[in-house]
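User: Look at the shape:
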Amino acid sequence: MTTQTATAAAAQALADTEVPRIDIPSATEDPAAYVTALLDVAAGRDVFDVLAKTPVWAARLFADLSTELAETVPEPGEWPAAFVVGHLFDVDIVYGFRWRLVATEDDPVYPGYDETLWAPLPRLPFRQMLDAWTGLRASNVALLTALSPEDWQRTGRHGEQGGETMEVMIRKVVGHDIAHVNQIYRAIRLVRRAAGLDVAELDATYASFGLH
C-alpha cells in the first residue's frame, strides 16, 4: 500500500468512525499518571521529528479556518482550538526554561504551574500567536538538537512530579504535542461541522500526520 493510499484509507476510517481522542490525566490531580500517559503516547516516536513538525501540523489544521471559528468553543468544557495554541506556547516557555536550567545546573528544582490559570492570560491575536509559538518552538528545537547524549541524562526535580532526566522531559513534551494536536483537530472538526463546513479534507490532513 502506498503512503497516499494509506492516508486515504485512514481518512476514510476517521469519517466512518468516532473521531479518536487522546486523553491525558490531570497533571495537578494525578502527576504520576499524567507522566506515564505522556510517555506512553510518545513511545516509539522520533522526538525531533514530532517537535519540529507540531507547529506545522497545527498550521495545516487551521489553514482555511476563520479566526472566529478558531476561537469558538467546540463543546461544553472544551477549549477553542485557538486556546490550545496559546497553551502550547506557554509549554514552550516553561520547558524552554526547564531544559536550559537542567543543561546548565546540577539537579535543579523547578515548580509546576496551573495551566488553567495561565490559559486566560492576555494573548497576541491568534495568527500572531501561532507565528510566535512556531518561532519559540524552533528556538527550543535548536537547543535540544545540540545536546550531547550525556546531556540527555542530566537530571532535574519537578516540584510535583519528582526527579526526571532531560530525556524524560523531552519525551513528555512529545506526548503532550501529540495529545494537543489531536485536541486541535477534534475542536476544529466540531466547529466546522456546526458551521456546515466540510471536514473530509481536515480528516485527510490529520490522517496524514500518522498520529492516530
